[in-house]
Model the fold of this input.
Amino acid sequence: MKKWLLFASLSVLLPFNVFAETAEEKGLAIAIEADKRNAGWKDQSASLRMVLRNRHGQESVRKNRNKTLEVDGDGDKSLIVFDSPADVKGTAFLSFSHAIKADEQWLYLPALKRVKRISSSNKSGPFMGSEFAYEDISSQEVEKFKYKYIRDDEVDGRPAYVIEYYPQYKHSGYTKQVTWMDKKIYRPLKSEFYDRKKSLLKSLTYHDYKQYLNKYWRSGRLEMVNHQTGKSTTLYWDKYEFQTGLNDRDFNKNSLKRVR
Amino acid sequence: MLNKKYGIFAACLFTFAGNSGYSGEWSGFVSGELRAYGHESDQADQEQYYASLAAQPEYYLDWSGGEQQLVFTPFLRIDQHDDERTHFDVRELYWAINKNALDLRIGIRKVFWGVTESQHLVDIINQTDLVESPDGEEKLGQPMFNFSYVSDWGTMDVFVMPYFRERTFAGKAGRLRTPLVVDTDNAQYESSDEENNIDLAIAWEHSVGDWDLGLNHFSGTSRDPRFIPDFSQPQNPKFIPYYDLIEQTGISVQATKDRWLWKFEGIRRDGQEILYHALTAGLEYTFFALNDSALDLGIVAEYLYDDRGSDALTPFEDDVFLGVRLAMNDEQSTEALFGVIKDVNETSSIYSVEASRRIGDSWKLNVEARLYQRIANDSLLASFANDDYVQIEMAYYF
Done:
């Protein structure tokens, strides 16, 4: 992280349109800038409501609560506790994400009181039956992708950089993601996901951005549409709280047993 | 009488909770179940079709920002025919407090240890509620004081358990039982304090990179009884369960390498007739997103061994388990596990299917089947040979 910060601060001093800068360098510089602007929040908690829609428009709802701890020089630690559907209430998912080496993941099954270490290779599988894959909801370290700046564009009148992300971790379901990054707040406005056959699979749009602690921007609503199946999922983020004093002890196998 | 103790404890906790001015929440399930056996029994009291109802509400309250918690989970099953399967249990009734690296939990709880799938050798804190399911996965609540400390070197747990819970066994009218009915009213104990013997356990667990390690020791009354045949009433012979005092050391290891999970559990137990060792070892491999679909297909293979051989109190003394796990990852969370456990030396095999699917937001359909095939006459499973069954359960969650 520190290395990136140094590089990021240097790159901020340089204008992006230096002749020598390649499209790859420019893409990386934008990703680093976005990472830098979103660093330092320490910990955050939020509630998530997911609305799943099938092709016929039938809806089902899932609710969970998320806690995330920022880890210096590594990926974040996160804990997701499921509140609904009722049969999975109390199930909890603990994840230590890493930039290059495999993430560490545990699942707590409340009926058996069992903590199960699970394989983190399941990147492309659906999260809770939704159109979001595990890799869409896990922390996005700069090193997880290679980048390429494509062009400037606008999304609903907001100027944006269009950048292609190429996953560098194993087992991704994507060959690339194309992201429209807001030029002002350095947060994504829209992403398109291309599957292993390089066809357009899903589109994600980000809505209702709000700023917290006068610095960090968080989207209140995300819309994911699967173009191949006609299914869609909306995520509603709510009750954002930052710097509530969470630490490592809130993110271990023992803490899984006391979450509700 | 135990129920009375629970009652007083519950009343104290609820009075306290009520006075604290916080409101808790209820969740849980009620379910209806039908179990059909493939063959009529040759025993007069046994039936072929069994219906039953169960309920497990759960009360949860926390305060001081989640630092303190109160949990109460009663369980009740009513079975159409089997008086022993009709039973009430307090699965959980405890108060827990967390301060920094320390957790203190007092009351009735469930604790799980271990990593393997086919059997749970190191998992010894809770007694098995065997009338619930022949797979032994259902457990009775265990009264305990539990102190837990988390450090950079892992988690240390100490358990003091002042009251022993007897294993439940099918009654005369129940299927899936021992050839003689187990007389649970006349259990015998090695400890002169009988069920009031104080059992102790200590456990350490840690995760280092890809490795999850566990080491534990239990000192107290064995959760598995031996059976003493009782022919004092010749028309009504019985098995008397005898609970030895044992010392058991257990170890569990899981290595998580990409899509491979490598698993090992081993125990060394002293005090139950002879000193013995047993292990379960194997692997699990998952094909995630099979052919770019949402389907996950997992393969589980485990070897089960007990060095007492044919003297073992378990039928799984030299057996192989093969399982296939399917997860559709759909909105209804459709899942299935197919398994077969086969004795290496003789013909006995158990085939099983467990499948589940959510219906709407609140209902869940569970289907389970077990087939006992070519069971050897001298196998501990011999009395189950006629007890192939299919079970359908509908549960409503709230």
Notes: Residues 112 and 213 of chain A are 40 Å apart (CA to CA).
